[in-house]
Every structure is written in structure tokens, then in C-alpha cells.
Write a structure and sequence with these properties.
- The chain is an alpha+beta fold and 225 residues long.
- It folds into two domains: 4-85, Glutaredoxin, CATH 3.40.30.10; 92-223, Glutathione S-transferase Yfyf (Class Pi), Chain A, domain 2 (Up-down Bundle), CATH 1.20.1050.10.
- It has nine helices and four strands, in the order βαβαββααααααα.
- The chain has helices spanning 13-25, 44-49, 68-79, 82-88, 93-123, 131-150, 161-173, 185-195, 198-223, and strands at residues 4-8, 29-33, 57-60, 63-66.
- The protein has a four-stranded mixed β-sheet with strand order 2-1-3-4, with helices on one face.
- It binds glutathione.
- Glutathione binds at residues 12-14, 41, 53-56, 67-69, 107, 111, 115.
């Protein structure tokens, strides 16, 4: 069997969610680091692999899939046991719809609130988040808090793919705006609960350290421009 190739970056939350699932399922990835600062993801060569010019991208033999949420589902359907599949992406259509709701929220709203700060910081000299960025992030934490008021995890009482996606974003987001435990106590408790899981810890720690370092380094540099 050819190795699973993952185009990735250490500071990428969506790539981190894929690595978490890899750990949960016992999969090994051959990692290919993409230099975002050198705009490698927009090169002709990379865009042949992923026309969106984003990471992560998974290559499984002659099949290529991009978009972390699609990758999570692909890996689960292809490599998980029936029990793992049922737990992480339940077949009950209503539970599954809640998982999808959270994943679409992550891709369309939550992660975007991180990306609109991160990319201009790295590439356009943004010296720090604006008041609007910060209030938008708080609004998004409020939505996650509401999801967590309904279940122990974001979409169900057990971990699902939605937790991998949202928690990867939330963890890196702490570098931009910490979760206020008085306003969003369930969010804080949820992240702490996940941090106790071995499959979560290593990808989480690597991503948070790299993302925090990149933001702080560039904000310092950009303030001097
Ligand atoms: N919704 C996508 C987001 C992917 C994404 O935006 N990744 C970032 C790195 S964390 C990226 O490649 N940014 C480059 C760009 O958008 O130009 C996913 O979950 O895969």
C-alpha cells in the first residue's frame, strides 16, 4: 500500500485536526511541509494538487482530497473500524446532521475568524487583531458555548469529528483571543477535557506552539513597520 501523504504546516489548525484523527485511527502520514510564507501553496505545482491552494491535502495513492473536513470523513470511511465510524460520525441522521452543522460552522465561520487575522498578519503587515476581529471571535465562542450547552461535546455526548475540527480552531485561536472562562465556561472545560486525550495532545501542542509563535513574532515585527 502506498503511504498516506499529508501536505501540511505545523501551525495549521485544519491540518492538526487531520493529524488527530490519524492518531485516533493509528494511521501514519508521510508529511510534506508546505512553506506558506514562501507562497508555495499558490505555486502552479501545488495548485495542480489542490486548485484551492490551501492545506491540508491528503494523497492516498492516485486519489487526492483537500479540505480538512472532507479529509476527516474520507479517512474515517476508508480506514476506521465500524465502531470508530459509528462513534465519530454516527449513522443516526439527526446526530450526523448536528456533526455536519458544527463542521460547516467551522469551515464557514469559526476558522474564517482566525484566518482573517492570521493571513494578513503573516503576509500583509497586520500589527495585531482589530476590536472587530476580537468581538467576532467572541461571538463565535458564544456559538460553541451554546452547542456545548446541549451536549457534553459539540454535537453529541461523545467525541465526534466535529470536536476535532472545532477544537483545533479554538486551540489556535487562543493566541488571538483567549476564551473568557466567565462568559464561556463550557468552552474552557471542553478544551481541558480534550487535552486529556492522548490523540489530541501532541498535534494540539505542536499546532498551538507554532501558531502562537508565528502570530507573536509577526505582530512584533509588523508593529515596527
Ligand atoms: N476550510 C479549509 C481551510 C484551509 C485553509 O485555509 N488552510 C490555510 C492554512 S491553515 C491555508 O492554506 N491558507 C492559505 C490560503 O488560504 O491562501 C480546511 O479546513 O481545509
Amino acid at each position: 500500500m502506498s503511504p498516506l501523504i499529508l501536505y501540511t504546516h505545523p501551525a495549521s489548525p485544519p491540518a492538526s485536526s487531520v493529524k488527530m484523527l490519524g492518531k485516533l485511527l493509528g494511521l501514519e502520514f508521510e508529511e510534506r511541509q508546505v512553506n506558506l510564507l514562501a507562497m508555495e501553496h499558490k505555486s502552479e505545482e501545488f495548485q495542480k494538487i489542490n486548485p484551492m491552494g490551501t492545506i491540508p491535502v491528503l494523497v492516498d495513492g492516485d486519489f487526492v482530497v483537500s479540505e480538512s473536513h472532507a479529509i476527516l470523513k474520507y479517512l474515517l470511511e476508508s480506514y476506521a473500524t465500524a465502531d470508530q465510524r459509528e462513534r465519530l460520525y454516527p449513522s443516526d441522521i439527526r446526530v450526523r446532521s448536528l456533526v455536519d452543522t458544527c463542521m460547516f460552522f467551522n469551515t464557514g465561520v469559526f476558522f474564517i475568524r482566525l484566518k482573517v487575522v492570521a493571513l494578513p498578519t503573516l503576509l500583509e503587515g497586520l500589527p495585531g487583531p482589530s476590536a472587530r476581529h476580537l468581538s467576532d471571535i467572541d461571538l463565535a465562542y458564544g456559538i460553541v458555548e451554546e452547542y456545548l450547552s446541549r451536549h457534553r461535546f459539540v454535537a453529541a455526548d461523545d467525541v465526534t469529528l466535529a470536536d476535532l475540527a472545532l477544537a483545533s480552531t479554538a486551540a489556535a485561536m487562543q493566541a488571538i483571543k483567549k476564551i473568557d472562562g466567565n462568559r464561556f465556561p463550557r468552552c474552557v472545560a471542553w478544551l481541558e477535557r480534550l487535552e486529556r486525550e492522548a490523540w489530541f495532545r501532541e498535534p494540539h501542542a505542536t499546532c498551538v506552539a507554532a501558531f502562537t509563535d508565528a502570530m507573536e513574532t509577526f505582530w512584533t515585527k509588523n508593529k515596527q513597520l
